[in-house]
Write a structure and sequence with these properties.
The chain has 239 residues and is α/β, with parallel strands linked by helices. The protein folds into two domains: 105 residues, Periplasmic binding protein-like II (D-Maltodextrin-Binding Protein, domain 2, 3-Layer(aba) Sandwich); 114 residues, D-Maltodextrin-Binding Protein, domain 2 (3-Layer(aba) Sandwich), CATH 3.40.190.10. The chain contains ten helices and ten strands. Strands 2-1-3-10-4 form a five-stranded mixed sheet, with helices on both faces. The chain is globular, with a radius of gyration of 18 Å. This is Molybdate transport system substrate-binding protein. Pfam families: SBP_bac_11. Belongs to the bacterial solute-binding protein ModA family. GO terms for molecular function: metal ion binding; molybdate ion binding.
Length: 239
């Protein structure tokens, strides 16, 4: 039995990935999900895991440098999108006009604890270079409602953007584009792509933390795993 700690944004794709892995290897996997930054702290505090799947490269790299992991490698990519309550957007709006709308509330994940928040802040920095003042304003305006030490858990089966907007906690949410196909199935939401020139690439990276975790690590780099990840909205990582 392998024990895995994995970023929450991998939750939906992880079941088919580990099912195929178990079919090929005969090895069972048990997984706990959470914000990658908080999971890293658990490993640093001594919690055992065989493999850590992070939504960014920094946390696995730090574990490897500290001797807590044997090696680390990227296995998938992701980007950001903007999800907005349908009643808050007009036919004339685009992603930029909505972010620039001072009457709309904006939420993100929590920088430092959740890579989704780190990526949102990088996006704000990119936007600041094109629209001086807007990126800084968005950092001040954004409420960090997901992935922090004190953040409420997202109900099982819910997507953060949909749940936060539907429950009235925000009007807009910047999150991972891998959720966009499912979010676009909801009539109460509108999803906007963020241009490549301003977007941020999330590099999903795994840290192998035990000899037993090597076999799962090799599977994550296989074409079979890449096909499943792509089917669930993740990009193939180009080595």
């Amino acid at each position: 039995m392998l024990h895995v700690l994995a970023a929450g944004s991998l939750r939906r794709v992880w079941a088919p990935l580990t099912a195929l892995f178990q079919t090929h290897s005969g090895v069972e996997v048990t997984t706990q999900f959470g914000p990658a930054g908080l999971l890293r702290r658990r490993i640093e505090a001594g919690e055992h895991c065989d493999l850590f799947a992070s939504a960014n490269a920094a946390h696995p790299a730090a574990l490897t440098a500290a001797g807590r992991a044997r090696r680390n490698f990227p296995f998938a990519s992701n980007q950001l999108c903007l999800t907005v309550a349908a009643h808050a957007a007009t036919a004339h709006d685009d992603w930029l006009s909505l972010l620039d709308n001072t009457g709309l509330r904006l939420a993100t994940s929590t920088p430092g604890s959740d890579p989704g928040g780190d990526y949102a802040w990088q996006f704000f920095d990119n936007l600041e270079k094109q629209r001086p003042g807007l990126g800084r304003t968005l950092k001040q305006k954004a409420e960090c409602l997901v992935g922090g030490p004190e953040s409420p858990a997202i109900p099982q089966g819910e997507m953060a953007a949909a749940w936060l907007i539907h429950s009235g906690q925000t009007d807009m949410f910047i999150g991972y584009a891998s959720y966009a196909p499912r979010l676009r199935q909801r009539a109460d939401l509108v999803v906007y792509d963020i241009p490549q020139s301003l977007n941020v690439m999330a590099r999903y990276t795994a840290a192998v933390c035990s000899p037993q975790g090597e076999i799962l690590g090799e599977f994550l780099r296989s074409e079979s795993a890449a096909d499943i990840l792509q089917h669930y909205g993740f990009g193939r990582y180009k080595y």
